[in-house]
Amino acid sequence: MSARKSKVFVITGPSGVGKGSLIARLRKEVPEIELSVSATTRSPRQGESNGVEYHFLSPEDFERRVEAGEFLEHARYSNNRYGTLRSEVERRLVEGHPVVLEIELQGARQIRTTMPGAVQVFIAPPELASLRRRLESRGTDEPSAIEARLKVAEEELAAQGEFPHQVVNDDLDTAAAELETIVRSKLSDS
Ligand code: 5GP
């Protein structure tokens, strides 16, 4: 397998910053890149289906897979568990696709150890208030869950400097172009 084929991109940033929209744009522009479908114990939101947005697991099944070493990384976030299954990433790499992981901070830190060659990009909001506006207008979380997400967001923003690449999502087009430039330069490096 060539180095080019083994590229893994980690996209991290606070909830509501627009990671999902930026990754959707990236996949449109760089169609060979594939998104790893994470596992979670949280309940599906309206419109989400099992195996598409997430593999929705019971807490028991999640824990069983942790014990069996099935995760490349896993973390607890807002009272739920989230993790990247090795099988999700390895299958795509074997098929020759670069893989993108959309994960929170604790998981990104673990990936630095388990996959030191992965390219880590932090997506930051122009200011904290914009996260609140986005989370409220998205309408997918209860007010208490929004407050919990904003508290975690402050901790995540404090860790931004750990990331070699940072993109501020003020204007979606500009941020998407910056992310694409980072990804294309890494893909052509190898
Ligand atoms: P949400 O509940 O909004 O879908 O996701 C909550 C947070 O969990 C987001 O910051 C998202 O990026 C993160 N997340 C999603 N999948 C994973 C994963 O596999 N591992 C880790 N560590 N975080 C994840």
Mean pLDDT score, rounded?
93
Small-molecule binders: guanosine-5'-monophosphate
Strand content: 15-25%
Query: Helical element count?
Result: 7
Would you tell me the structural class of the helices and strands?
A: alpha/beta
Unreliable stretches covering 5 or more consecutive residues: 1-5
What order do the SSEs take from the amino end to the carboxyl end, as H and E?
A: EHEEEHEEHEHEHHEH
Radius of gyration: 16 Å
**Global shape:** globular
Largest β sheet strand count, sense and barrel closure: 5 strands, parallel
The amount of helix comes to 40-55%
How far apart are the first and last residues' alpha carbons, in Å? Answer: 12 Å
Please give the oligomerization state of what you see. Answer: single chain
Strand order of the largest sheet: 2-7-1-8-9
State the total count of DSSP E strands.
9
